[in-house]
Sequence to fold (72 residues):
Amino acid sequence: MSRLKSASLSAILAAVGKPTVEEAQEQARQAERDRIAAQIAMAPHLNSQQRRSLRKTLAKQSSKATGQEVAL
Fold:
């Protein structure tokens, strides 16, 4: 029964244009990836190893803050 309710809720949310929980989480992860990419782009003086290290550091900080892992 709960599966049916979940499917119905997803259908209703899709019909009114509201994102489902999964879609909202994916949007948040994408926004976090974009934020990390923007910070790295603002540091053109870094070599590839330094950029990789910065990317990992920012991803770890993001994971701690959001409680979800950010795949880069």
The helical segments are 2-15, 21-41, 48-66.
